[in-house]
Amino acid sequence: MQISLIRHGRSNLHSDFMNMKQFQEWLEHYDREGIAEETEFPKDTVRAIQTAKFVISSTSARAIQSAALLTNSLSFVQNPIFCDAALPSVLGAPEWIKLKPHGWMFVNRMLWLAGHSKEIESYEQARFRARQAVDLLIGYAHCYQKVALVGHGYFNSMIAKELKQRGWAGPVFISHEHWGCTTYTYRRVLEGIQNMGFTVS
User: Fold this and answer.
1) Which among 30, 59, 179, 193 is most buried, taking Cβ atoms within 10 Å?
2) DSSP assignment of 60-76, as one string?
3) Which helix (H) or strand (E) holds 96?
4) Taking the model in full, what pTM does it have?
5) What is residue 118's DSSP assignment?
6) Which among 32, 24, 176 is positioned nearest to 101, based on CA atoms?
7) Which segment of 21-35, 149-163, 175-189 scores lowest on mean pLDDT?
8) What is the mean pLDDT of the chain?
9) For residue 50, is pLDDT > 50?
10) Distance CA 120, CA 4 (A)
11) What domains can be seen in the chain, in order of their start residue?
């Protein structure tokens, strides 16, 4: 069985230096906007999509548009369980502090990992969702053998970590490049639901 994790394409939005308030406005647009259309993609990504028997994406605009470009169709499943983990805001950050969006994302993600998750999904909640997402992906892989997910850098990494913990073979770290693809395989003889990598409650 094979599960390929693909990161969505690059956003259309500008990435200049900005303060926290401007970043929050940028992030709202980022969650709604699509991506810059491209015609060439990494060979590993194209191969994963072409050989996949089942393609799925998150319900974010950038993931849906990416999957549509890669498959040249809308014949794929969309599920919010694969959406990225939310980012908190840095409360009270002085306006003179300016970073590029990637920098603010890093700062906010570190705060989130440290427990700052008021009014958004916490790290523990996201981990639980990642386990549910992996259960779903493994179920699809059991049915279709080769599955491709078009999702998000951070949540894809959480999925990858869970796959590794369940015995799936693949890189320790996923590709965080836009359109990057990382593939995990499971070749053991399947003997019951535990050996398929499902969690059992």
Assistant:
1) 179
2) SHHHHHHHHHHHTSS-S
3) none
4) 0.88
5) T
6) 24
7) 21-35
8) 89
9) yes
10) 28
11) 2-185 (3.40.50.1240)
Q: Which of 81, 48, 85 is nearest to 67 (CA)?
A: 48
DSSP secondary structure letter of residue 86:
P
Q: Which two tokens stand for residue 161?
A: 């970590």
Residue whose tokens read 């060979």: 43
Given the structure tokens 């939005």, which residue do they identify? 13
Can you give the pLDDT at residue 31? 73
Determine the residue type at 172. Answer: V
As given in the structure block, the two tokens for residue 148 are: 């491709």
Residue among 11, 72, 63, 48 at smallest CA distance from 145: 48
Which residue, chain included where needed, has tokens 């965080």? 176
Amino acid symbol at 91? L
pLDDT at position 136 over 60: yes
Tell me the C-alpha to C-alpha distance, in Å, between residue 119 and each of 15, 45, 85.
Answer: 26, 35, 13
- C-beta of residue 37 within 8 angstroms of C-beta of residue 8: no
pLDDT in tens, 95-124: 899 999 999 999 999 989 998 888 889 999
Kindly write down the DSSP assignment for every residue of 13-53, as one continuous string.
Answer: S----B-HHHHHHHHHHHHH--B---S---HHHHHHHHH-S
